Amino acid sequence: MATLGELAKLIRSKNAGPFNLTFDVMFDEEETYRRVVASNVLTKEVFCRLYNLAEENVLLVHHDAARAIKISIPRPVFSCDLEDSDCYGGQQFGPLVNLEVPDP
Amino acid sequence: MEARVLSPCGVIGSGFPESSFERGLSMKPHVIACDGGSTDNGPAFLGAGKPNFSRSATKRDLKLMLQGRKSLDVPMIVGSCGTGGGDAGLEWMRDICLEIAREEGLSFNLALVRGEQDKAYLKKKYKEGRIRALDPAPPLDEDIIENSAHVVGMMGDEPIARALDQGADVVLTGRASDTSVFACHPVRMGADRGLSWHAAKILECGAACAVHRARPDGCFAWIRDDHFVVEPLNPQMYCTPQSVASHTLYENTDPFYITEPAGVLDTSRSTYSAESERAVRVAGSEFHTAERYSIKLEGAELVGYQSVIIGGVRDPMILKQLDSWLDGIREGFETRVQEIFPDRESPPAYQLTIRVFGRDAVMGTLEPEADRIPHEVGVLFEVTAEDQVSANTMAATLAHFALHYPIPEWGGLISTLAFPFTPAELEKGPVYRFNLNHVVYPDDPYEMFPTEAMEVAN
Questions:
Q1: Is the Cβ–Cβ distance between B133 and B140 less than 8 Å?
Q2: Is B254 close to A61, i.e. CB distance below 8 A?
Q3: Which of B52, B127, B155, B394 has the least C-beta neighbours within 10 A?
Q4: What is the pLDDT of residues B331-378, one digit of tens each?
Q5: 8 Å CB contact between B101 and B458
Q6: What is the mean pLDDT of chain B?
Q7: Is A74 left (phi over 0), alpha (psi -120 to 50) or beta?
Q8: Contact residues for B250 (Cβ-Cβ < 8 A; gap 6+)
């Protein structure tokens, strides 16, 4: 068993403009990327459960050339609005890091 | 066909090594281009018309670019001047440019392409139903347009190309799509649009497409008939097919389809292969022309003025009832505010935002672990009012009110908050918000972006 954080080259979140947030989970090795995708550890359903979101607003893409799983959502609060506390959206990926990926 | 583009760095003012830039010049670019702005830093820059980078850092980069341009006699473009890309930012960059020209004895034809939008024009478009909300978008009506501090349109490549057609050597623009600035000249030279826009998407962040970007640096592209090649300028940096492919992920909602004013860049069939140990070849990118030409709007409006308080809580008794304690402060303070403005009929309107660091301040409603009781938390109180004096007045009272706000478990006067300094309240100044995520359908790509040409002779 390994965590997503141990297997990924980079897990990050960032604004995609002031109104959307995007999450990138990127891998160095093709094999690791395939293993994580096949494990279904990070699917729309899992993401929505973790972040308490409805699935219809979530875009999840597998980008094979970048060996990346990418997820985009509308921001619950727009960037820099009074209630927003992460103007760049850079610290929203935390709950993904400790997801457990079963051994192949 | 080969169009060569030099991108000195991801944003002017962030700096680049002279040696990298020299290397870029030695590869004989047809154009030197650089981005100057973003919404990423928040609405305050557009709202207040202030640039993110300092004048001196910007001047250093611009001077090297102007001198490099002169040595090759090629056009130079700086987009989204002054961060927000409004008139204030464009004029700030123009003044720096003219100062450098004077000091260095440079002569050139300068064009300014404005991106700031006239409110009457926007209201007319709104009435005609020619402004459309993107998803998600804040609500829009004529008052919202009128109350904006500044609104800019994100120009396409066409107004910049026209300035070059009219003989400009140096083009400074207001808000432009980051990619327009780089795609403009290759498209003008007849390069393939899909390849040009995809190359532009990579170039606009300078060396960010490299595997390890040790510091802000630049990037070079060769756009040819059926592919383009990108390479970082710094010989110590390198790109891989993965690092270039993953660059379309960055700050985009959808990595395969990227919307521009004239259409959509489609990278879903792009292929990436190693051209050398440092360079990557990309092919198969397409550009699909949209049925309607659209310009994205960005607007900022003043929300109010803020004063803030930072304090820490370590008392386990308070921590186990933190929300009810904070609700009590919020409610009690509402009453207390009535008393501190005796000269006014009613107290000034205010908004109190309370964040609990150590619990859910970072993620808010997205936080899955918000119900855990931490051993200590940082509390940030933000008072937002319509003027600074009211915000300061209320924050000073709030700091004292919260410091001694009781809980039932303790008898006697308590001090509930660890303030790292006093006075506990900090004046934060004006606060802005983004008030537009909309597109407008203009009659043509030019009408929103007037150009002003001037001859700089020294």
A1: yes
A2: yes
A3: B127
A4: 999 999 999 998 888 889 999 999 999 999 999 999 999 999 999 999
A5: yes
A6: 97
A7: beta
A8: A14, A24, B205, B208
Q: How large a percentage of chain B has pLDDT more than 70?
A: 100
Evaluate whether B312 touches B298 at the Cβ level (below 8 Å).
no
Nearest to A59 among B253, B366, B432 (CB): B253
pLDDT value of residue B214: 84
Closest CA of chain A from B273, distance in Å: 10
Give the DSSP H/E element, type plus range, for residue B222.
Answer: strand B219-224
Residue B86 predicted with pLDDT over 90: yes
Q: Which of A18, A53, A59 sits opposite B434 (nearest CB)?
A: A18
Pairwise CA distance, residues B99 & B353, whole Å: 44
Question: Is A63 in the B-facing interface, judged by CB distances under 8 Å?
Answer: yes
Q: How confident is the model at residue A38 (pLDDT cuts 50, 70, 90)?
A: very high
CA distance B50 to B48: 5
- State the DSSP H helix or E strand holding residue B297, giving kind and residue range, or none if neither: strand B295-313
Dihedral sign, Cα of residue B268, residue B273, residue B279, residue B284? negative
**Site of tokens 């970048």:** A66
pLDDT(B251) > 90: no
Query: Any chain B CB within 8 A of the CB of A46?
Result: no
CB contact under 8 A, B433 and A19: no
- 3-state SS of B8-37? CCCCCCCCCCHHHHHHHHHCCCCEEEEEEE
Write out pLDDT tens, residues B300-321. 999 999 999 999 999 999 999 9
* DSSP-assigned letters across all residues of B56-123: HHHHHHHHHHHHHHHHHT--EEEEEEEET-SHHHHHHHHHHHHHHHHHHT--EEEEEE--B--HHHHH
Q: Quick check: A70 and A61 in contact, CB under 8 A?
A: yes
ipTM score for this prediction:
0.93
With a threshold of 0.90, does the pTM exceed it?
yes
Cβ-defined contact of B43 to A80 (cutoff 8 Å): yes
CB contact under 8 A, B253 and A18: no
pLDDT band at B49, cuts 50/70/90?
very high
Phi, psi of A56 (to 5 degrees): -65, -20
Nearest chain B Cα distance for residue A32, angstroms: 14
Query: Which of B39, B361, B433 is facing A17, going by the closest CB pair?
Result: B39
Chain B residue closest in CA terms to A51: B366
B250·A19 Cβ contact <8 A: no
Contacts of A60 in chain B (CB under 8 A): none
Matching residue, tokens 């660890």: B418
A62 at interface of B, judged by CB pairs closer than 8 A: no
Percentage of chain B exceeding pLDDT 90: 96
